[in-house]
Design a protein that fits this description.
Layout (H helix, E strand, L loop, with lengths): L1 E6 L5 H10 L6 E6 L1 H10 L10 E3 L17 E7 L1 H9 L5 H11 L3 E6 L6 H13 L2 E2 L13 H16 L13
Length: 182
Amino acid sequence: MKLVIVGTGASGAIYLQRMLDKIDARENEVHLILSTFAKQVIHEELGELRVPEGVHQHGDKTMNVPFVSGSSRFDAMVICPCSMGTLARIAAGTSDSTILRAADVFLKERRKLILVPRETPWSLIHARNVCTLLEAGATVMPASPGFYSRPQTIEQIADTVVDRILDQLGLPVSDTFRWAER
């Protein structure tokens, strides 16, 4: 699978870290972009992001990457965490950064675009932007952890969100994700 993984400036860097930990970069082609504010939040929340070997990193100010063109075939793009500012700019169709242009391409080409906002509460403007993106074909998955599996650590709590994202991508998930099937 060819994936674009993005982190923006919303709190919740642990979700990005856990997703990078769980996606096998030897089995999948993974491209990572971090916004300027994502780097700041990562530093404040995690210290530093552990990027697995094999993950291709790109800046947010270049159009010299394959996934900003509709003629380049990528399977999915995940923005996690997704700030409401990024979500709004995608809904408005602005394409003035690598992240925004890539999201625009995924929408116009009808490819899987998953946005994981962590913001709460939402304003009416947030809800309308989410509706616009749902109507355009995006999947919006608010970072709402589940507690059915009785998570014992912060990582396990984060994994309840990350496993739902991976399930949407058709990638392997934790055994505890499928707790209800037992």
